[in-house]
Design goal:
By secondary structure, this protein is of the alpha/beta class. Helix content is about 40%, strand content about 15%. Helix 1 links the parallel strand 1 and strand 2. Bound molecules: NADPH dihydro-nicotinamide-adenine-dinucleotide phosphate and guanosine-5'-diphosphate-rhamnose (GDR).
C-alpha cells in the first residue's frame, strides 16, 4: 500500500490497556496511527514499547503527540493537522473508585473531554468538508443499578461520578450524530481485561498477587466487595468491535459483552485455584476498597453486535484468567531474581 493511501486513525488514551491493543489491531490493518499522550514526569508508554519504531525511521506508522482531553485547543490542533479518517476516544480517568475521590476532574476528562473532541471533529468537518468517523468508549457502568441482562435499550442508572460522566459522553455523542449528522458511535463495552490491565483494577490486582504469593514475594491480598458480578471479556477481542462499528454503513450504538458473568469471589477461586492455592488463606477485606455506591450485577446482551457487526468474543472466562495468571507468574519470577540479588525491595507490594 502506498503512503498516500494509508488510512489515518487518531486515538486518545493510546497509552492505556485498550489503546495499546487497538493500535496493534489498526497497524495490522495498514493504518497510520496517531496517539495523544499526556506529559508525565515518567515515561507512560510502556504498553506501546513493543510496537514503537523511532519516528525518524520512514517505516514508522505509529506517531505520538502531546495533548490532554482537558485542553480543547490542542485537540483541535491535532485534528486539523493530522486530518484523521477515524477518531477513537479512549482517554479517561477510568477508575470508578478514584472517581469518587476526584469527581470534578473525572467529569472534566470523561464528559467534557468527549464534548471537546466532538467539537474539534465537527468544526474540522465543517471547515474542510472532509469525513471523520468518531468512536466513543462507553461503559456498562452506565447501567449501574439496572439489573441484567443489559442491552442497548436498557435504562441507564449510573452509580459513580465516572459512570455519570460516561452517560453524559454517551448523550453528547448521540446528540452530535442527530444534530450535525456526524458518523459517531457509542460502544457500550462491558469489563474487559488482559495482562496489560491497570494494576489497581480488581482482576489484575488479583492475578498480580497470585503470581507474587506463589513465588513467595507476598502473603496477603487486601480487597473490598467480593460479591459484585461482572461480565469479564478479553480486551484484545473488544478492540475489534470498536473498529467494526466504524466500518458500517450507518453510525449506531452497540453493547459489547461475553454474556457470561462471575463474582469477584469466583474470579479469586479460578485465579488462586489455577496455581493450586486457596484464596481464603490469603485474602483480607479492607473497607477502604468499598465504594460509596456499588454496581452489583452486570451481564450484557451482545445480540446486536453479533448480528450487525458479526462480532463474537473468542476468549472465555477461564482462558482469560489463565492468560493473566500465567503472565503475572512470569513477571513475579523475574521480580524474585531482582529481589534475591538486592535490586528491588521484595516487601514492596505493587
Ligand atoms: P486505561 O485506564 O488503561 O487507559 C486510560 C487512558 O486514558 C490512558 O492512556 C491515560 O493516559 C489516558 N488519559 C487519562 N486522562 C487523560 C487526559 N486527561 N487526557 C488524555 N488522556 C488521558 O483504560 P482502558 O484502556 O481500560 O479503557 C479505555 C477506555 O474505555 C476508557 O475511556 C474507559 O473508561 C473505557 N472503558 C473501559 C472498560 C474496561 O473494562 N477496560 C470498559 C468500558 C469502558 P495515561 O497512560 O497517561 O494515564
Ligand atoms: P469496575 O472495575 O469498577 O467494574 O470498572 P474494577 O475492577 O475496579 O472493580 C470491579 C469490582 O470489584 C470490586 N472490588 C475491587 N475493585 C478494585 N478496583 N480494587 C479492589 O481492591 C476491589 N475489591 C473489590 C469493585 O467494588 C467492583 O465491584 C471497570 C473500569 O475499567 C471502568 O473504566 C469500566 O468502564 C468498567 O470496568 C466497565
Amino acid at each position: 500500500m502506498g503512503e498516500a493511501t494509508l488510512k489515518k486513525a487518531l486515538v486518545t488514551g493510546i497509552t492505556g490497556q485498550d489503546g495499546s491493543y487497538l493500535t496493534e489491531f489498526l497497524l495490522g490493518k495498514g493504518y497510520e496511527v496517531h496517539g495523544i499522550i499526556r506529559r508525565s514526569s515518567n515515561f507512560n508508554t510502556q504498553r506501546l514499547e513493543h510496537i514503537y519504531i523511532d519516528p525518524h525511521n520512514s517505516g514508522a506508522r505509529m506517531k505520538l503527540h502531546y495533548g490532554d482531553l482537558t485542553d480543547a485547543s490542542v485537540l483541535r490542533k491535532w485534528i486539523d493537522s493530522i486530518c484523521p479518517d477515524e477518531v477513537y476516544n479512549l482517554g479517561a480517568q477510568s477508575h470508578v473508585g478514584v472517581s469518587f475521590e476526584n469527581p470534578d476532574y473525572t467529569a472534566d476528562v470523561v464528559a467534557t473531554g468527549a464534548l471537546r473532541l466532538l467539537e474539534a471533529v465537527r468544526t474540522h468537518i465543517m471547515t474542510t468538508g472532509r469525513h471523520i468517523k468518531y468512536y466513543q468508549a462507553g461503559s456498562s457502568e452506565m447501567y449501574g443499578a439496572t439489573p441484567p441482562p443489559q442491552d442497548e435499550n436498557t435504562v441507564f442508572h449510573p452509580r459513580s461520578p465516572y459512570a455519570v460522566s460516561k452517560v453524559a459522553a454517551h448523550w453528547y455523542t448521540v446528540n452530535y450524530r442527530e444534530a450535525y449528522g456526524l458518523f459517531a458511535c457509542n460502544g457500550i463495552l462491558f469489563n474487559h481485561e488482559s495482562p496489560r490491565r491497570g494494576e489497581n483494577f480488581v482482576t489484575r490486582k488479583i492475578t498480580r498477587a497470585v503470581g507474587r504469593i506463589k513465588i513467595g514475594l507476598q502473603k496477603k491480598l487486601f480487597l473490598g466487595n467480593l460479591k459484585a458480578s461482572r461480565d469479564w471479556g478479553f480486551a484484545g477481542d473488544y478492540v475489534e468491535a470498536m473498529w467494526l462499528m466504524l466500518q458500517q454503513e450507518n453510525p449506531d450504538d452497540y453493547v459489547v459483552a461475553t454474556e457470561d458473568s462471575h463474582t469477584v469471589e469466583e474470579f479469586l477461586e479460578e485465579a488462586f485455584g489455577y496455581v493450586n492455592l486457596n484464596w481464603k488463606d490469603h485474602v483480607e477485606i479492607d473497607p477502604r476498597y468499598f465504594r460509596p455506591a456499588e454496581v452489583d450485577n452486570l451481564r450484557g446482551s451482545a445480540a446486536k453486535a453479533k448480528e450487525a457487526l458479526g462480532w463474537t468474543p473468542k476468549v472465555s472466562f477461564k482462558q482469560l484468567v489463565a492468560m493473566m495468571v500465567e503472565s503475572d507468574l512470569e513477571r513475579a519470577k523475574r521480580e524474585k531474581v531482582l529481589a534475591d540479588n538486592g535490586y528491588i525491595d521484595s516487601h514492596q507490594q505493587p
